[in-house]
Predict the structure.
Amino acid sequence: MNHSSPTILQDRAAAGRRLIEPLLSYARRPDVIVLALPRGGVPVAYEVATALEVRLDLMLVRKLGVPSHQEFAMGAIASGGIQILNEQALRAHPIDQAAFEAVVAGETRELLRREQVYRGTRAPVQLKDQVVILIDDGLATGASMMAAIHAARVHAPARIVVAVPVAPIETAEALRCEVDELVCPLIADWFMSIGYWYVDFSQTSDGEVIDLLQRAWRRESPPPMA
């Protein structure tokens, strides 16, 4: 595949810029909040929130990897005790209760660690009656995004939008039924991994996440009165 082809995303920031135009109807609206799935979703979401001049925050989600095949999601957890299971994966990779609970416990610790490191003492966002735009750097099985959708829905938002740069066709179709709107410029009928569609898919660090959030939050708080 030719890496200069328009279907290839340069990096996460470039991927985020591709989402701006389809989301322009949400620009400068006080009831809109962009929620990034860290870590990879943060640089994508930052571009969108900055261009649309809307709020940016996080939706913390952790994939539950099958112990023998870490990259294979047997489900996901999200803030607020939300847990989604991928029955198909659990049938393909049967796992006993103790092993399953160990994975959940480990990922819950990481979720809480990230909450603390990224958001500190910042008050949780109020999603009731808001338009929530959930953003990640791409979808594979969709387990993490499904957990994010359920976690957002608990708070009774006015509308849930999922915006991602790339997804396989089956995942896109499955999620489209779960939300009010799905924005995905690149829906692939052949899918190996999210990273395949990027030139630079290097891991996003905690430092990068914190830096982008702080920048967005500084922009949101009005400057002190002179």
User: Anything to note?
Assistant: The radius of gyration is 17 Å.
